[in-house]
Amino acid sequence: MKEIIIKKVKLITDGGVDLSYISLLQENETSFTDKFEVESSKHPHPDLVNAIKALKPYVMKIVGLDIGQTVEEANLTTKEKASFKGLGKAMQRIKSKGEENVKVTGIALSGDADNLNVIITSVLTTTKGFKIAINTPKCNLSSDVYGFEPAFRDDVDLVVEEARMFLLEDKKAQLSLEFNSEEEEKEAEEKVEKLVEA
């Protein structure tokens, strides 16, 4: 019986995926462990990209970039909190702008299914265009440190499953369209031209 354990998933800047995984093979009473590093230039399926992007709120909260959470943790007086509530829309715009500057690039995993740890890797683009690597600390998904570990675990599991499908089932991005006839292809081209002109 062969088992694949994903250890790292990272999106490559110009397209492609960098994966690390362990292959466990059990034959009779003997087990074999092989470690693999795969850098594929094939573009990942949007499901994998979106699963990785969905981890952004966790990065924002864990590293303290979530302004709303930061305000809550600042132990403000009742009067100060009331002042911030009046700034709700402005705070939301500031939070949204901050989130635009963070790009999640991948995850690194350690431990096992019962005691899984994850580090989310990301990049913050400063107002001057400089890029800063921002990695979360190692987060134990079996703990209750942040209060959102069950949902966090589900989202990490989705990334792992999508990475597994990329690796084993060749689930990649579809970079070209296939048509049943030349007529269908011509119709599609005309629709694209109309959209471009609009």
Low-confidence stretches: none
Per DSSP E runs of 2 or more residues, the count of β-strands stands at 7
Return the domain count.
1
Largest sheet: 7 strands, antiparallel
What is the overall number of helices? 7
Overall radius of gyration:
22 Å
Amino- and carboxy-terminal Cα gap: 56 Å
Order of helices and strands: EEEHHHHHEEEEHH
Describe the global form.
flat
- Percent strand equals 25-35%
What structural category characterises the helix and strand content? alpha+beta
Into which percent range does the helicity of residues fall? 40-55%
Mean pLDDT rating: 83
Verbal overview:
- With 198 residues, this protein is of the alpha+beta class.
- It has one domain (2-197).
- 40% of the residues lie in helices and 29% in strands.
- The protein has 7 helices and 7 strands; from the N terminus they run βββαααααββββαα.
- The chain has helices at residues 46-53, 56-62, 67-73, 78-86, 88-100, 149-168, 182-197; strands at residues 2-11, 17-27, 30-40, 102-110, 117-125, 131-135, 139-140.
- Strands 1, 2, 3, 4, 5, 6 and 7 form a 7-stranded antiparallel β-sheet that branches.
- A hairpin with a 5-residue loop joins strand 1 and strand 2.
- Helix 1 (46-53) packs antiparallel against helix 6 (149-168).
- The longest helix has 20 residues, at 149-168.
- The radius of gyration is 22 Å and the shape is flat.
- 16% of the residues are buried.
- The mean pLDDT is 83.
Give the structure's gist in a few sentences.
Helix content is 40%, strand content 29%. It has 198 residues and is an alpha+beta fold.
